[in-house]
Amino acid sequence: MILLCGIPSEGPIARAVAAAKQVDIPHLVLNQRQVGEWTLELELDGDLTGLLRGPDGTWDLDRFSGVYVRLAEPRSLPEVGDPPDAGKLARAQALFQALLAWLEVAPCRVANRLGPSASNMSKPYQAQRILACGLRTPPTTITNDPAEVRRFVAEHDQVIYKSISSTRSIVRRLTPSRARDLERVRHLPTQFQALIPGADVRVHVVGESIHATEISSAATDYRYAARDAQDVQMSPSVLPTEIEERCLALSRALELPVCGVDLRRTPDDQWFCFEVNPSPAYSFYEELGGQPISEALVEYLRGESGSTNGDLEDDDGASD
Amino acid sequence: MPYAVLAHRGDTDAKLLAEELERRASAPEVELVWADELLLDSRFTHRVDEAGVETEIACAGRRRLDSHELFGAACRLRHSLPPQFAGAPDTDREYAAMESYALLLSWLTSLDCPLVNPPSPGGLSGPVLGLLEWLALARASGLRSRRLQLAAPGAQPPPAEWQAVTGSLAASSTATFGVPPPEIPGEGQELWLEPVEGPAREALVVGERVFGEVTDEEATACVELARRAACPVLGVHLAAPTADGGETSVFCGAQTLPNLGREGAVAVAELLTGETA
After folding, report:
1. Dist. CA A33–CA A38, nearest whole Å
2. Is residue B146 part of a domain?
3. How many structural domains compose chain A?
4. Which of A177, B12, B126, B128 measures 20 to 30 Å from B172, CA to CA?
5. pLDDT for A211-249, tens place per residue?
6. Is this prediction's ipTM beyond 0.85?
């Protein structure tokens, strides 16, 4: 049996549930919005054992071959209320923390564990891991020195800037008008990157399977294309073998068996990697690109495909 | 600029460590850099590209901390809030802290000199693990782990002598049991721990060396725990389960930023330099 944890109406969970039904994989949906109706009991006495209790039954934790985690922050649950009801919040947080703690040490497949997902907290840290796996990353400088930014801009045709951390930011070009505000970087180091021209390709790694989706959009950051009055189109794509292998190696190295790798293919067929998303909103790509990512996910959790292990953090993919 | 010690103001162990480094011939230059100096009063440039990573840090009134010139470093930073944002609105303060954290993590990771403790994605001065992870690691390392039970509200509690504590299951840099009971009893889940009535002991691991009152067997297990946690400087809390101290000690928690004292500072300086005073 596989366990799917999150909000059932949310795209990635909804698609995973549909796929599990489609391929007839026994599954249990832990609906996080049923605050107070789910509890996790653990006992550590040498070995770790436990029970998951829900509104319709009780399950031994050993029964789960794999767990998909897409938990919302407890305070954001409508059932907790605004302002939050102290008792409901306590119950929601207790379950949230217990689940995450258990999943860090659970022997089953987990997509993904919290610890490895933290690599996404620093883009330049991740860039070092990406480079170590043989993928290229854009030239980057992070600085609070306007002179360094000017030097960097002089070296590269076009430059973008974005957050250093996992905090979501819209990728923007450093235009001449924005460049006039460079003195503001003195307040806090800021990340600047050479703009890499080309087509965005989102790769979803699921265990040992690869699902590449090419994205066509004139927007600098396709995730916000609508805001810039631009369209987005997606289509399935096939990666060169060595790029596939490097994406798989990256997934293994980061201990993120299910992840979204943001690539860009330049007009002269060079491949660059921007970042790895530990909790990809794959449903967006599956819906528009038509690839069976959710099916691969539930098959992975069943334990019949792929290997490795590693979650969290929300972001539906980024490309620059 | 051979050695750097990064710490928050008031960290006396950091001062001791800087003193001990200065006493070593191979470390004639030591910079004890306070977090506020690093985050407020410095010029920071961190370049990442296919040629590698290059970092230049110029703190006002101090030697530069250019990455390729460092011989070794000790990081005792617990957080990364730039002081200039201390009074900013919550969202700005949080953003500044996360951005600074992301930068420091990348810089520290890129250093190819000896560094204690090496950063992890979750922590600048070592791994950030939850209690279950520490307990599992301790057990795998040869220590007896404290028994634990997480019970649903209203569930049958364990034997009366077990201690109820609150949800310290989440990861933190100091994983020690003994948090006060829940503010809203019966609402959250209840965490119970095996009682430990005997004297508590703390072992300090520095590389392959262990300080504190531990048996040879415990020392070996503590070193193995530090190795598995990728945390060469580690405080390990042990306690006897019974008041007479007669049984095998149990592992109660670990600390990635332990108190060093003079003895620990000497050991860390030796670990970084490979040299005695």
Report:
1. 10
2. yes
3. 3
4. B12
5. 999 998 776 667 666 666 778 889 999 999 999 999 999
6. yes
